[in-house]
């Protein structure tokens, strides 16, 4: 079943930018053999204040024995991203075109923003940032729900060369504080609060806690700009709760500041490798990594992947359900669509509110043509049965996208047959915060699809599979997924820690960027990403490290040791399964389990809450003290086929852990 091919429908192929595998292969070959000509041609669609220096268009080093790793695209060029996304579209006659339709959590709340208005608001807010002392290179943290002020804030940063760091507004105050501290941010932008479904989140209060924690560690945030989002909802209940605490020296309302701000702002010209944004992602050692993306390469890569992978044409209505707190929201809610003058939908809410068919009704309401979401969302909606989908026409859809984790065949087929009526192409896009944009993906008008396979590399991308010893696996086989050379949208470093960047991604296999994922190549050359091969977990498409959760658990005064592994989960893909060794004299009871779950929610965020907490009087360790996670994963799965246990210091522990395993 999994190997059956699904061919793009002929209507899609007829209008596609890339309409056949031959065309794809030719373009891919050109992108590899003549990167300067290939990307140089694409770059012509954008405005450059100064052009790139020809013989410095592309340079890199992936070989640690030759010195530090570096990646440079379009050296010498200077531009401004907001200028290309906004002014250029307005100047070319698209000022009245809708950039964003906004759909609120409550179906009664909706609005829209044209390119002209988006430019004005961006300039206004850029002037507000300037009035707060923000200038080129300063860091601005954004902790906001999916409202229009979020892309405006991001674009305003790019207007003046400030570096934005968007933190998902589901993270705890600890996680936010850690990110404020690491980036030494000057300004924080937030809202009074937000309704997510029927749940109220008081974001400003979380920010206050985070700012206080950052202050304790010696970092003083200068300003906090607050959108009165709850207050403007005209909902009396919302207004009651929106009486947020206020520090007159630090806090200002967005609307007060915007009132007198000028609607034009001359863009700051940034050089090609100037930082554009930092986005934190989980690292396997626990401390989040500040992935840094730069200007020119990211712009051309976001624009090109968006255009080809969603096959976006003028008049199409595109909707990506991702939050701007993740890379998908950066590249495929903000930068990629606007660089193509696209019209997109931004949705504030959740798929289950007010009813479980909210996604389908939004698709019909806006006549969405490209719909991009995550396997976990698809699986959670499958649960409600087919009737909720069939109630809606969904006839405008052409391309369906999937991202965040491997998509299982069942979910793929449901998406394809039911949502896409068997006529839409599915783009199963493999990529990472680090890759900036899609790196392995089908082309909707060209690539015959196999459910669960991300298929082939995007332009400029050269994947390889390596064995344990770093030998390249040719043809069919399975191994470590690595890339041989950089493409324009790839990360450049980890903010403030180039050494960690080199160690994390280039140490394991010299000469290659190591993704941390495993993959298989089948007889037809299709790539199948099999998932993480390091100590990372992917829960509902959210990447987190076992170390991160373990260190939070181990902080509890009753806990001597904690080990966290992943367990497969029907909706979330993976969930957290924690083994806890209590301190001597401490009991492992329900109270402790509740406290530990709460602690993880508070410290990391609600999405990180463990599903299972198991008592482990001891952990299976080698004689040198290394925890055998492989065995813990088997115990979590209830799989008694544990393999060789002779390397364990105490083999009896395995039997004991099976006995203590709760019924899950
Ligand atoms: O394990 C891979 C998985 O998500 C990881 C990257 O997570 P993050 O940086 O948070 O970015 C997510 C959105 C791009 C990868 O290392 N992953 C992402 N997309 C896929 C995937 N695994 C399989 N198939 C995919 N399409």
Give the arrangement of secondary structure elements.
Blueprint: H1 10-15, H2 21-33, H3 35-43, E1 58-61, E2 70-73, E3 78-79, H4 81-94, E4 98-103, E5 110-114, H5 115-131, E6 139-143, H6 149-160, E7 163-166, H7 173-183, E8 187-191, E9 194-196, E10 199-201, H8 203-216, E11 223-227, H9 236-241, E12 251-253, H10 254-259, E13 270-271, E14 275-281, E15 289-294, H11 296-309, E16 317-320, H12 327-339, E17 343-347, H13 358-366, E18 370-373, H14 375-382, H15 387-390, E19 399-403, H16 409-419, E20 425-429, E21 463-466, E22 477-483, E23 493-494, H17 498-506, E24 513-521, E25 527-532, E26 536-539, E27 542-545, H18 546-554, E28 559-569, E29 573-582, H19 590-603, E30 612-615, H20 629-637, H21 652-660
Parallel strand pairs: 4-17, 6-7, 6-8, 7-14, 8-11, 11-12, 16-17, 16-18, 18-19, 19-20, 29-30
Antiparallel strand pairs: 1-2, 3-13, 4-5, 9-10, 14-15, 15-23, 21-22, 22-24, 24-25, 26-27, 28-29
Helix pairs in contact: 2-3, 4-5, 5-6, 7-8, 11-12, 14-16
Bound molecules: adenosine-5'-monophosphate-propyl ester (PRX).
Adenosine-5'-monophosphate-propyl ester (PRX) is lined by residues 281, 327-328, 403-406, 428-433, 454, 515-517, 529, 531-532, 538, 543.
